[in-house]
From TrEMBL:
Gene3D superfamilies: PAS domain, von Willebrand factor, type A domain. It comes from the Eukaryota. GO terms for molecular function: metal ion binding; voltage-gated calcium channel activity. Pfam families: VGCC_alpha2 (PF08473), VWA_2 (PF13519), VWA_N (PF08399). Residues 1-26 form the signal peptide. It is found in: Membrane. One of its GO terms (cellular component) is voltage-gated calcium channel complex. This is Voltage-dependent calcium channel subunit alpha-2/delta-3. It comes from Zootermopsis nevadensis. InterPro entries: Ca_channel_alpha-2/delta, VDCC_a2/dsu, VWA_N, VWF_A, vWFA_dom_sf. Keywords: Calcium, Calcium channel, Calcium transport, Disulfide bond, Glycoprotein, Ion channel, Ion transport, Membrane, Metal-binding, Signal, Transmembrane, Transmembrane helix, Transport, Voltage-gated channel.
Amino acid sequence: MEANLMIRMLFKFAFVFMIVLQVGVASRDGFFFSSEERDNIKYWADQLGDELWQLGQSVTKATEMKARYKKLNVQVREKDGEALLMEIVHNVQRMLDRKRDAVRCIVNAAEDAAEFFNGTDALHNYTFYSAKNSYVVGDVTDGKDDDAYKPMELDPNKNFYSIPVNLNYSSVHVPTNVFDRDGPVLDAIKWSESLDDVFVQNYFSDPGLSFQYFGSSIGLMRSYPAMKWKQEADLFDCRNKFWYTEAATCSKDVVILIDNSGSMTGYRNTIAKLTVSNILDTLNNNDFVAVYNYSGRAEEVVSCFKDRLVQATLENVSTLKAALEDVMPEGYANLTNAFTKAFKVLEKYRELRGCSNSSAGSQCNQAIMLVTDGVTGNHTEVFNTWNREANSTHIPVRVFTFLIGREVTKVREIQWMACLNRGYYVHIHSMNEVREQVFKYIPVIARPLVLQGTMHPVTWTPAYADTADPTLAAWLWDVMDTGRRKKQSEFAGSKDRYLSHGRKDYIYIKDSNQVVGNKNVKLQEYRIIVSVAIPAFNRMLNIDVTNETLLADLLGVAATDIPIKDIEKLTYKYKSGVNGYAFIVTNNGYILLHPDLRPVFDGVLKENYNSVDLTEVEFLDDSNGPRMLNPEIEELRKAMVNYSEGKMLKKRMKFHYDNIRRVAVEQKNFYFAPLKGTPFTLGLSLPDKYGMYYIKAGDEVQKSRHKKIPIIKYLQGGSWRIHPDWTYCKYHHQTHAFELPEDEMRHFLEKMRSPDWLWAEQYEDTEDEDEEVMLMMDNGTEAVNCNRRLKAEDEYYCDRELVQLFTFDAKVTDPFFREDELTYFEQEFVNLYNVSLKFVSTQSGLTRWLRFQERTELDEGDSDFGDLHKKSIEEPYYRSAVLQHGNNPDSYVFSVPFDAGLRDNAVVMASHAIFPRDGGMEAAASVVGLQFQHSALFSRFMSITSKTMCPSCRDCASEELDCFVIDDSGYVVLAEDKNLTGRFFGEVEGAIMDSLRTSSAVFKEVPIFDYQAICVDEEIEISNDANFILTPFNQLKLLVHWMYGQLLWLLFESNLSHIWYGIQSSARPIFEESFESYEIDINETDEVIDEDEDAGQRKTEEIFEVPRLCDNKRNLYVLQYENLKKYEYTYDQCSRPHIVQYIPHTNLVFVVIKSTFETCYKMVSSSSEEILYNGTDHPCQKVFLNDLPRRRISGCFSEHPLEHDVKLCGGCHSLRARALLFVVSWCVVYLGCIQYH
C-alpha cells in the first residue's frame, strides 16, 4: 500500500515537473523578462532615440537645410551611366593622348638629330649639364665648380614635387661604368642636346606633363627638367627601367634553365643564381617566365609553378628568387632533358595564344636562357626536333647562353647553341660582370623591331612607385615645401589616434634611407605612376666597317611619367557620387586605379602592389569561399581585358569601408569602355538606387555676378575645406603660390567676379584626333602636332560643373554656419551633450564646420575637423549616412572610434544624409552631423536607464543587468564598462552575438576576403659575444677587415669597372638591385641580454617583425532592420537571457542582459584571420589567376627577314685589365684571405 502511494506521488511529481519544464522552456524569455520589464526597456530605448533625434535636428538644422534646397530650386536629374562613362573616358583619353604625343615628338626629334649629326662637332672641351657632376649655383654644400660641366641654376617647382629644377634645359645622367668623355658617349650627349627645344615645347604647351626622358642605347639618359642627382651611391642605368626594357623588347615568354649539377658549386653557383636574379629583374607584368634547375632531370624551382609559365610580377619574381636560394648542386647535367621540357612548355603557350598561326606569329617573343658552366656533347637533335618549323625556315624560340666561371671548356659548343637559335652568348667570369652581361640579350630581342624601322609601338608600363626611382626617391623627403607637408607627415607619424593606418598609407611611405629599427619613423609622400614610352631607331643602319654583318641597334627610348592621381582627378568623382567610383583595368586584368587598391601597408610598399587582379577587389554577395571566383565577376574581367565596351546591371555586391571595419551590401551597375591607344579599359560602378540620381546646379557663378554678390560672401570665416584631390580651378604654371587649396579657391572666386571671366579646360579637343591615330596605326606614319600653343603664365583651367555645384552648395549651407546665437532650447542640448561642433559635407567636396563654446577650441598640436575629414563623399560618416537613408531616412548614424575605450576624451560622431526631392526623384546632396563628448552621452544613457516603471524593474546600474548599445556593424557605442567602448560586441558577449547572427538573423554575417593583406611573423636572432673582447688588437683587426672590404668593393663594383674592361664594355648597364620590401624590414626590435659576469659572456636576443603577403578573412556584420522588428528571443543553452530593442531614429541597438545567469564562453570575432590553404605557401594559392584571360600587347615584332644578316651573337669576353691594377687587386685578395685564416 505504501509502495503504491509512493509510486503515485512520484508520477505526480514527474508530471508536474514536466509541465513546469515545458512551460519554462517554451517561455524562458518571458520568465526572465516580465512584460513590465520589456515595456521599461522599450521606454528607455524610445526616450534615448527621441532625445538623440532632437539633438541632431536642433544642432544640425537638417530639416531647415532640406527646405533651403527646395527654396533655391534644386534640380534632381536621373543619371545616365553610359553617358557618364563616355564623358570620363573622353576626359582621360585627351590627357593620355597628349602625353603619348609629347613622347612621339621626342622620338621624331631624336631620330632627326642623330641622322644629321656631324661627329666632328663634338669637341673634347665640350661641356654639358650633368645630373651628377654639375655645380648648383648658390649651393654652398655642392662642392667646387668643375669646368668640365656647366653649372645649373635650380628652383623648386610644385609641378615636380617641389624638387629644385630648371625648366629651360635638361640634364644628363651617365651610368657609373660609362666614361662620359668617351667619343661615342660625347657624340650622343652633343646631338641629344637639341632635344631641349622639344622638351621645353612639350612642357610649356602642357604644364601638366611630368618628367620627360630620352634613354640612349649606350646608357646615358637626358631628362627634363634639369635636376641634380641626389643619390650618393649611383647604380642607376636607364636601360634597366620599366619604360626602356618594355619599349625595347615588348612582351616575352622566357624559360630560364639553371645548371644544378655537381660542378656548379661555390662561386659558380653564386654567380649563376645572381645571373638568374638579374634576368628576372629585366621582366615585367607583360612577360611570362618559368625557372627550372636541372641536373639528372629538370624541375621547377617553385613546385606549384609546375608545367606553366607565370606572369613576371614583382610578387612572382620575388618567389622565384627566394626558391633559388634553396637549390643545392648535385648529380650530373642532362641538358637534353632540360631543353626538351623548356621547349614543350613554350610550345604549349604558342598554341594557347595562336602563335603558330603565321598571322599572329609575329606577336610572340619566346626565349630560353641557359645558365651553366659548360655543356657536353652536341644538341643539334634537340633543336631540330623542337625549334625548327616550316621546313626548318622558322626558329620560334631564341636561345641565350650564359657561361659561368673562369676555367671553362667547350666554349664553342655553348656559343654555337646561341648563334644557331637567333640568340646571344656571353661569358660571365665574376659577379661584377653579371648585370652588364645579362643586359646584352635585350638588344637582340629588339632586332626585328629595329630592322622594320617604320612602326614605333607605344608602350605603357605597369604601375610603379616613384619612391622606387632613384632619380626621385632621395628628394621626396627633403622637398616637403614650406614646412607644411613635412609637419603634416610628422603629425601623421605620431598621431595614430587621429589618422588610421589606411589613411596614412594612402599618402605616406616610410623613408627608405632611415636606419632600420629606428623608432622615430620618418614618412615621405609617394605617388604611383605609369610611363608611356616609344622606341627611337637609328636611321643610319648600315653594314659595319668590316662589311660582314648588319648592325641593328636601338637609338634609344623616349618616355614620360603619368601619376595615377592625375588620371584619377579626371574621373569626375563628384559625378559618380558616394559609393560610386571609376576604375581602370589593364590588359592583364590588374587594377591600375580602384578605391580598394592599397599599395602600402604601415609605410612599406607591398610586393603585389601593381599586380592586384580585378577578381581580388570586386566581390558578389555570394557564399563562395576564399579564392573561388564568381562567374559574373570573371565575365566582367574578361570583357574589360578584351577591350570591350558594355555594361552589367544590378549585381548584388558587397564592399568594405572604414579600414575594413564595416561592410555594406547593395546592387551596383557596371559600365566599361576602352581607352584607345592604351592597354587600359575604364570602368564605372554606380549604386543602383540612389547612385542613379544627382543634383544639377545651374549657372550659379553668373547668377552671383548678376546680383553683384561675391561668392566668397557665402564662405565667411575660415572653417571650411574643399576636397584636396579634386580639381576646381588651377593655373597651368605653378608661379602663383597658394599655401592651401582653399586659398587658391578664394583667389579664383574673386576672379570670377570679373565680366571678362572665361571658362577654360586643361586639355582642348583636337579635331579629327581619332582619325589621325588610326592613320598612324595603319601606315606607320608619325603625324603628330609638335607645335601646340604654349600656355601663358596666367592661363588657368577649371572644372566648370564642379565649381557651379560648389557655389550652389555654399549658398545652401551658408545660413547654417554663421556665428549666430543659439536659441535657449538649442543651447540646452549643446550643454547637455557637450557638443563640440556641427558640420556639413556636400557632393561638391565642400566641408564646413562650426565650433560651439570657447571651451572646445583646439589644443596646441591638434588638427581641426576639416583637416581630419576633408574628403567629403569618401569619408566613412558620409558613406554610412547615405546607406542608412535606405534603411530609415529619419535617422542619424552614430559611431565612436574603435579605440574609444582607450581614450579619455573620446567623441561621438553623428551624421544624417539630406536627400532633396524634385519631380518625384531624390538624390544625395549632403550629409550633416555633429560631434559631442562620449562621456556626456554615457551620462545621459545612465540617467535615462536609471528610471524604472515598475517595482520589479531593475536599472542598468544594478548588478542584475548588463546594458549595451551597439551600432549597425556590431561595435559597442555604450557599455557600463567604458573600456569596452569601440570593441566588437562579439568579443565581449560572444554567445549572444552568435545568437543574433544565427537563429534570429538580427545581424547578417558578411565574410570579406582581403587578398592584399600583410601578415607579420616574429623571428628571433640570438648573438653570442662570448669570445669577443675589444682589445686594441681586435679593434685593429676590425679596421683592416673593413679597409679590405671597402677596397674590394671599390675595385669590383664602383666606377673603376671601365678601367677593368675597357671602352668595349663601358656602354653596358649596371642593374639596380631589386628592393625586397618585407624580407629585411624591421618594425620593432626587442633586446634581451643574458650576461654571465664570471665567464665574461653576453648573449643578445633580438625579435624581428617580418611582414609577408598573405590572404586574410574578416567576418563583418550588418544590421537587418526588418529582422530586428520581428525579433523574438530564442533560448539556447549557451547565451544568457537578453532582450534586443531598436533605438528609434538611429543605427543603434539596445541590448539588455540578465547578468546573474551563467553563460558558456564563446568568441565571435570580426578581426582579420589568415587563410591557410592546407599548407600551401603564398602565392601558390592564387597561381590559377595566371590562366585567366589576358590580352597580348600589340605592336610586337619577333622576327624580320634581314635578321639573318646580323651575325653578331656573342663571343669570348677578353679581359684587358691594366697589369698594375690587376696585380695590386689580387694581392689585396690574397692578403685578405690570410687575414681571415
